[in-house]
Amino acid sequence: MAHITINQYLQQVYDALDNHEGSFCAELLSFKHPHVANPRLQLTNPEDKCQQVLEPPYDEMVAAHLRSPERGQGSPERGQGSPEAGQGSPEAGQGSPEAGQGSPEVGQRSPERGQGSPERGQGSPEGHMPTLQLLRKYDLMQFADVTKAVREGNLLLLNEALVKHETFFIRCGIFLILEKLKIITYRNLFKTVYQLLGSHQLPLEAFLVCLRMMKVEDIDLDEVQCLLANLIYM
C-alpha cells in the first residue's frame, strides 16, 4: 500500500464504494492507513485525478483527503523539552497565610449546579441536539434545519437541508455522516404516527401515507415493512 500509484488507490476507493464496503472505504480515507506515508499520493491538486475515477460527491471528498497538509506530519514541537522544566518556583513551599482557613462557601451548594447550560444540547431520545442559540453563536446555521428535522421527524425538511447545504457539508467531510441521520428521522416520524393513532397495532398503510406526505414517492408496503423491521432491530 505504501508504493501504490494514485490510480491504483482511487480504484480501490471506487471498488469499495461500488461494493458498499463501508468499513474498507473508511479505512482507505483514514490518516492511520499506511497509504498516508506514500509520497506518490501526496498531491497538491488531486482534483483532476479524482474526477476521472470517482463520481460526485466522492471525488471532492477524496481530493480533500489527499491534499490535506497534515497527512502524516508530526507536530514540530512534540518532544521538545521546555527550558524552564525542572526549575523550582521561588514561591514553592511557602505557606499561604490563608492556608487552612475554611471558606464560608465550602459545603454550600451552588444554585447553578446540575443545571444545564442554555447553550448545551437538549437531551432527547436522538442524543444531544445543539440549540439554535449555539449554532448562531458559532455561525453554524447550516445545521439549524438538520437538527430541527431530526428532532421533529421531518424527513422532507432533512432532505431539503442536505441538498441546500450539500457543498458545505462535503467540504467539512461530514455529508455521509449526516445521511445516517435519516434512520433516526424515520424513527421519530413513525413515533409521531403511533402517538396520533394511539394504538399498539398500527396498519402499514398509515406509515405509507406518512412517507408519501414527506415526498417519498418510490416506496411500497413491502419496503415500509422492511424499514420498520430495521427500526425495531435498532
TrEMBL record:
* Superkingdom of the source species: Eukaryota
Locate the region Disordered. Answer: 68-129
Output the Gene Ontology terms for molecular function: double-stranded DNA binding; RNA binding
Write down the InterPro entries for this protein, in alphabetical order.
Csn12-like (IPR045114), WH-like_DNA-bd_sf (IPR036388)
Q: Can you name a GO cellular component term?
A: transcription export complex 2
Gene3D superfamilies from the UniProt entry = Winged helix-like DNA-binding domain superfamily/Winged helix DNA-binding domain (1.10.10.10)
Q: Tell me the GO BP annotations in alphabetical order.
A: poly(A)+ mRNA export from nucleus; post-transcriptional tethering of RNA polymerase II gene DNA at nuclear periphery; transcription elongation by RNA polymerase II
Query: Coiled-coil regions in this chain?
Result: none
Which protein family is named in the record? Belongs to the CSN12 family.
The protein in question is named Uncharacterized protein
Q: Which organism is it from?
A: Muraenolepis orangiensis
